[in-house]
């Protein structure tokens, strides 16, 4: 009953007109950015990070969560109507969703995606409400060795499991860790990798790096390369923007299965929603082969319903893992973790004790965001699609201006603008050569935690490194990491074998 009473207090805080405004604004911004080709929730959160420091923390994180969830809705709209998913998490939805649109069922496809995302996100929010306090209490048993193992799990899983090339993923991680150690060492007070420049004594701003890598790098990529690529054709949607009873009965089991598949991945640092969406799609495809009249390849509604539910249920659980453990499973979650630290807050058990009003208002806002997103997407998905008509040069020019203004407003330093451009060029080069960006962001965010935990563990054990592999929690985390890596290797071997055949 304590949980329900705390949630009720959270709703009382989230339903104030100020916080309702930030929920709606976040959902609108997230959906709009998700619809735009090449953009996503991680870029939106990165761009908003510099301008939200003037906001009260609860309002800022309520808006960030709306952007996080809304980005998934927008990605699916673009994938269904143009066969061009905005983010990797929407690829699985595109397979059958675009075929439904080609068959004249675009409104039904958009409705299936919106309801699936609502179901997955809403159920995940319920699970998070009851699971997050338990996870926070459980994390009190974590010591330096456990936190180092957790960070190592996140590093290796995000850099090697969800990337096509483990080498590129690890190199991207190394860049992030390298950026994280620039500045004065907090223990010895000795400058590290500063080239004797006082401008680097405070380190390289995480806000500058995220905005440069995720936003400015994308702008440079578009200006140099992507503008020469031919874009898909936007399909027009005609007909009823709702599902019949037969379609609901067809999609309902897939929504349930997709949600169940996505929930566990919300607490596993394996890159976000990409893996569960493909698993949900694959599960429905196997079930479809057993039917008398297989529908996959013709616009199967279950092939769209399951990935949508899986993606949002993973995102919902990811927010719980972020709040309770301080564990980011994707680039967007890593940026939100950085935002917590900018406000002087550390996710985990202390957050539930020191800022309960923020935590429970944020958890309550998840439910509100799901309802708001359903309202603005179910009947108005085609209106959002009109954003695709905005000329790309104007759109990306606006993003560039926003990048510069946001960074300068937070620091007032021309050096940070120079750093913004330099890191933006790095982001462009990584994009051109298919280096994943998420490991870099996660490496920079969790790098200080890993370093501090490693030092504390070794100091407490008088330099005995065996302390890093002692204890049930540490061994369990390393065991899960080994299993995750073995499954990743197996999947890649199987996929290459199929290609050879």
UniProtKB/TrEMBL annotation:
In terms of InterPro entries, this protein maps to: DUF112_TM
Membrane-spanning ranges: 20-39, 45-73, 109-135, 170-191, 203-226, 321-340, 360-382, 394-411, 417-433, 440-461, 467-489
Q: Name one Pfam family in it.
A: TctA
Record keywords, A-Z: Membrane, Transmembrane, Transmembrane helix
In this chain the DUF112 domain maps to 20-442
Q: Does the keyword Membrane apply?
A: yes
**What's this protein's name?**
Tripartite tricarboxylate transporter permease
Species this protein is from: Rothia santali
């Amino acid at each position: 009953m304590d949980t329900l009473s705390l949630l009720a207090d959270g709703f009382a805080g989230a339903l104030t007109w100020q916080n309702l405004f930030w929920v709606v604004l976040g959902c609108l911004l997230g959906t709009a950015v998700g619809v735009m080709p090449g953009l996503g929730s991680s870029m939106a959160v990165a761009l908003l990070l510099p301008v939200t420091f003037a906001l009260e923390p609860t309002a800022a994180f309520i808006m960030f969560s709306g952007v996080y969830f809304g980005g998934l809705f927008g990605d699916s709209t673009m994938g269904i109507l143009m066969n061009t998913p905005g983010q990797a998490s929407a690829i699985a939805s595109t397979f059958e969703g675009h075929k439904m649109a080609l068959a004249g069922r675009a409104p039904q496809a958009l409705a299936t995606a919106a309801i699936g995302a609502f179901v997955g996100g809403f159920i995940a929010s319920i699970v998070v409400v009851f699971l997050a306090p338990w996870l926070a209490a459980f994390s009190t048993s974590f010591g330096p060795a456990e936190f180092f193992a957790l960070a190592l799990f996140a590093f290796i899983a995000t850099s090697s499991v969800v990337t096509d090339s483990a080498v590129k993923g690890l190199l991207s991680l190394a860049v992030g860790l390298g950026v994280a150690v620039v500045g004065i060492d907090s223990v010895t007070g000795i400058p590290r990798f500063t080239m004797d420049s006082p401008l680097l004594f405070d380190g390289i701003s995480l806000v500058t790096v995220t905005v440069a890598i995720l936003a400015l790098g994308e702008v440079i990529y578009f200006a140099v390369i992507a503008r020469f690529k031919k874009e898909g054709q936007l399909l027009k949607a005609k007909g009823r923007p709702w599902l019949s009873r037969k379609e609901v009965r067809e999609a309902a089991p897939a929504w349930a299965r997709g949600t169940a598949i996505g929930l566990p991945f919300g607490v596993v640092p394996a890159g976000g929603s990409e893996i569960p969406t493909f698993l949900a799609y694959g599960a429905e495809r196997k079930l479809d082969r057993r039917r008398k009249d297989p529908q996959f390849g013709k616009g199967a509604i279950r092939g769209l319903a399951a990935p949508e539910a899986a993606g949002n249920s993973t995102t919902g659980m990811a927010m719980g893992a972020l709040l309770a453990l301080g564990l980011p499973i994707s680039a967007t979650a890593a940026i939100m973790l950085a935002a917590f630290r900018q406000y002087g807050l550390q996710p985990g058990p202390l957050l539930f004790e020191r800022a309960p009003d923020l935590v429970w208002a944020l958890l309550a806002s998840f439910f509100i965001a799901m309802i708001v997103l359903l309202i603005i997407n179910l009947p108005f998905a085609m209106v959002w699609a009109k954003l695709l008509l905005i000329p790309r040069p104007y759109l990306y020019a606006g993003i560039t201006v926003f990048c510069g203004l946001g960074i300068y407003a937070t620091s007032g330093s021309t050096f940070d603008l120079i750093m913004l451009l330099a890191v933006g060029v790095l982001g462009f080069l990584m994009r051109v050569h298919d280096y994943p960006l998420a490991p870099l962001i996660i490496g920079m965010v969790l790098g200080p935690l890993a370093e501090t935990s490693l030092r504390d563990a070794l100091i407490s054990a008088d330099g005995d490194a065996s302390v890093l592999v002692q204890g049930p929690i540490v061994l369990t985390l390393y065991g899960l990491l080994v299993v995750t890596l073995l499954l990743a290797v197996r999947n890649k071997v199987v996929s290459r074998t199929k290609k050879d055949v």
